[in-house]
């Protein structure tokens, strides 16, 4: 299995099937702390921080990863937390891009 942090997202404009639950669960082993939703269409993780400044520093670093990979999460930002959700909208489910980005986001905090 390749190291997802070393991979890069590939454009996805649809026309391919989303990953099934088994494939998604297997990829979660490289995205520590992320959870799969019930229909297996989204992964998410909530990160906690000491204060608002650290939260926003994380959000800005995450925005850089999203820009470089051209794959963008949904974010819910609060004072000391950030919930990150990935899905590939074009296929209404999960793709490798979601797991690549999840691994890269974890790398921002040294995981």
Largest sheet: 4 strands, antiparallel
CATH architecture: 2-Layer Sandwich
Radius of gyration: 13 Å
Number of domains: 1
Organism: Sulfurifustis variabilis
EC number: 4.2.1.96
Enzyme class: lyase
Catalytic activity: (4aS,6R)-4a-hydroxy-L-erythro-5,6,7,8-tetrahydrobiopterin = (6R)-L-erythro-6,7-dihydrobiopterin + H2O
Can you walk through the features of this model?
The chain is an alpha+beta fold and 111 residues long. The protein has a single domain, classed as 2-Layer Sandwich (Gyrase A, domain 2). Helices cover 34% and strands 17% of the residues. The protein has a four-stranded antiparallel β-sheet with strand order 1-2-4-3, with helices on one face. The longest helix is centred in the middle third of the chain and has 18 residues, at 52-69. It is globular. The two termini are 18 Å apart. The mean pLDDT is 95.
How would you describe this structure in keywords?
111 residues; alpha+beta; Gyrase A, domain 2; four-stranded antiparallel beta sheet; 17% strand; Pterin_deHydtase; PCD_sf; EC 4.2.1.96
Topology, pairings included?
Blueprint: H1 21-27, E1 35-36, E2 43-48, H2 52-69, E3 74-78, E4 81-86, H3 96-108
Helix pairs in contact: 2-3
Summarize the structure.
The protein is an alpha+beta fold and 111 residues long. It has 3 helices and 4 strands, in the order αββαββα. Its EC number is 4.2.1.96.
